[in-house]
Write a structure and sequence with these properties.
Layout: H1 3-14, H2 17-26, H3 38-45, H4 48-54, H5 60-70, H6 79-84, H7 97-103, E1 120-121, H8 124-150, E2 153-154, H9 163-171, H10 178-190, E3 194-196, E4 200-203, H11 205-210, H12 215-228, H13 257-270, E5 290-291, H14 296-300, E6 321-322, E7 327-330, H15 336-343, E8 347-350, E9 355-358, H16 361-369, H17 374-384, H18 391-403, E10 407-411, E11 418-422, H19 425-433, E12 443-445, E13 448-451, H20 455-464, E14 469-472, E15 478-479, H21 495-498, H22 500-508, H23 514-529, E16 532-538, E17 544-555, E18 558-563, E19 568-573, E20 577-582
Helix pairs in contact: 1-3, 8-10, 8-12, 10-12, 10-13, 16-18
Length: 588
């Protein structure tokens, strides 16, 4: 044990519980840590592994200040922040030796060229391009959310979506670019629209609600989520973000930060916050990164304002043209709520400022399975169609309605197993041998199929394979199905609550005599290391004698060791020991 560890232990014991909790959270201390007293805590915080975790988390200002202090210079304004992190001595600006050793050899790269205090306004051409990009991002993310609602995206062990899932997204019309898909899914997660659940990325309740918002409101929510998820080093005191030119250098000792900062800059570009040529390129040696008119409010910490974006994006429409070839044409971007319902009954064939949709027997069957009725479909189409509902579409709908419900999915009240029934024996046989349904483990039983898989999963599996399935209750009545969305996770307990047991244990172990506690700590440490100590001992006649001992044991209030001078074993009561100091071994 060293003097700097003792000073830190005493400083820790003087902190409030709230300050200790904040320190432990920032230093990533495990709440179930086995520390028994503040001396343990001091040793743990000065441990090389703990320092290796915190140094990459330091901001540029903190890293510069710590480097200056390690070289004997004044750390400046960041000194208090470093003391709060237990990286500077409790008093003064000196650096404890373990911290100095961890910082040695680390350099802080030069900062980016100074950018203008006020971001450069983008020109009209750049603004139009950024607006189009933001419009496309919102629409593409909506497609990804709908696919996640159909089937959650499987996550790899590292928490990222695998290539097989990305191929599925590409096959369903999303861009064939892995980094772009990663950034899109990150935007959805940051805004709380997608949520990880048991190694899958699922549509959240907030995502289902977002899908029904108008386009400008969708964009504003994405920007708010993006801003809220930015690391603290990139945020301003007002709640906005610092200049993008500064992002790449804000964590100079984190080897993964360059890739993280580049990803965040690409996300800012996807949201249309910065010009196309600027995002991801770091600081420009000239005028700096240009800013879109609609980005200023969010950067300052205010609510994102889509009003400035509206003139640059196509206006949403609420009417379509229905044609005799069973297609629907939207003369502009369809209002999201209308688009969502229309896509529940027709397959979208093209997506742009004017989208096209095609009605098929399968698409109408899926709509009926999802709870629509023939009457509700006709009423909806008549409300939004500028050309009425053509006769071929009415005929196809009547055929689909007549066929719907031939497959019924319910729960057997006696066994609790899911049971599939159908009056069409051939249809039931087809389901039983369908390779796509093998994971359900369907077993023929009398005039039905049974499985242990819950009925909702079975129903959606049949519907996805375009079987005319209907969900029925225990009495045989048809139910309106609903896809399950990921609910909000339980909020993490505040740091004060998480670390309360650990802090209480540290305080309970604190004795009234700090010097005695420290002495016992040193002796225990010396015994473990079999160190050589010069021990000052109070003699019965009131004098003091110094013994050089090779410590061999400690316990029961006594210190045991071999006296180097007399080559004899000695046992000393701890109450007689006044002080100790380490003795350097020759050649060490």
């Amino acid at each position: 044990m060293s003097t700097h560890a003792r000073l830190l232990a005493e400083a820790l014991s003087a902190r409030t519980d709230e300050d200790l909790a904040a320190l432990f959270a920032r230093r990533e201390v495990r709440p179930e840590n086995g520390w028994n007293d503040f001396f343990d805590a001091a040793e743990g915080l000065l441990d090389a592994a703990s320092l290796a975790r915190i140094l990459p988390r330091l901001t540029r200002a903190e890293a510069v200040a710590l480097s200056r202090a390690a070289n004997g210079a004044d750390p400046g304004d960041a000194a208090n922040a470093l003391r709060d992190l237990a990286l500077l001595s409790p008093s003064g600006g000196s650096v404890p030796p373990p911290v100095a050793a961890a910082v040695a050899g680390r350099e802080v790269p030069e900062p980016a060229p100074t950018a203008p205090a006020v971001p450069v306004p983008a020109d009209e051409s750049s603004s139009a391009s950024a607006a189009e990009r933001a419009f496309t991002t919102v629409a593409t993310l909506a497609d990804a959310l709908l696919l996640a609602e159909e089937a959650p995206l499987a996550l790899l062990a590292g928490g990222t979506v695998g290539l097989s899932e990305k191929r599925r997204l590409v096959e369903r019309g999303l861009p064939d670019a892995v980094p772009l898909l990663d950034d899109l899914l990150a935007l959805g997660s940051e805004a709380g629209l997608l949520r990880p659940v048991e190694r899958t990325l699922s549509l959240a309740d907030e995502g289902a609600a977002w899908l029904r918002l108008p386009g400008p409101a969708r964009w504003a929510q994405l920007v708010a989520g993006f801003r809220a998820a930015l690391p603290p080093a990139l945020r301003t005191a007002e709640g906005g973000w610092i200049r993008l030119e500064c992002w790449p250098g804000e964590h100079p000792w984190d080897p993964a930060w360059a890739a993280k900062a580049a990803s965040l800059a690409r996300q800012a570009r996807l949201l249309g916050l910065v010009a196309d040529q600027d995002a991801g390129s770091g600081a420009d040696s000239g005028a700096g990164i240009s800013e879109m008119p609609w980005a200023a409010a969010a950067r300052r910490g205010e609510d994102p304002d889509p009003a400035a974006l509206a003139p640059f994006v196509p206006a949403e429409v609420d009417r379509i043209f229905l044609q005799n070839d069973l297609t629907a044409i939207a003369p502009g971007p369809l209002l999201p709520a209308l688009d969502l319902r229309l896509r529940g009954m027709a397959a979208r064939e093209s997506a742009s400022q004017a989208s096209s949709y095609r009605f098929t027997a399968d698409s109408l069957t899926s709509a009926l399975s999802a709870g629509e009725r023939a009457e509700s479909i006709i009423a909806f189409l008549e409300e939004i169609s500028l050309t009425g509902v053509p006769q071929p579409l009415r005929y196809l709908l009547s055929q689909s309605a007549a066929r719907h419900g031939q497959v019924q999915v319910g729960t057997d009240p006696e066994t609790g197993r899911t049971r599939i029934r159908s009056g069409d024996v051939h249809l039931l046989d087809a389901i039983g041998v369908d390779q796509a349904l093998r994971p359900l483990g369907l077993i023929p039983e009398d005039d039905s199929l049974t499985t242990r898989v819950n009925r909702d999963t079975v129903f959606w599996a049949l519907t996805d394979e375009h079987y005319p399935a209907a969900l029925v209750d225990r009495q045989g009545g048809v139910e309106r199905p609903s896809r399950t969305h990921a609910t909000a996770p339980v909020a993490e307990e505040p740091a004060e609550v998480r670390y309360a047991p650990l802090i209480a244990r540290l305080r309970d172990a604190r004795g009234t005599d700090a010097d005695a506690a420290w002495l016992e700590r040193e002796l225990e440490h010396a015994a473990r290391q079999r160190a050589v100590l010069a021990v000052a001992v109070a003699m019965p006649d009131g004098s003091t004698r110094e013994l050089v001992l090779e410590v061999t044991g400690f316990g029961g209030g006594r210190l045991r060791g071999r006296d180097r001078a007399g080559d004899v074993e000695r046992t000393l009561p701890i109450r007689s020991i006044l002080s100790t100091r380490a003795v350097e071994e020759p050649g060490s």
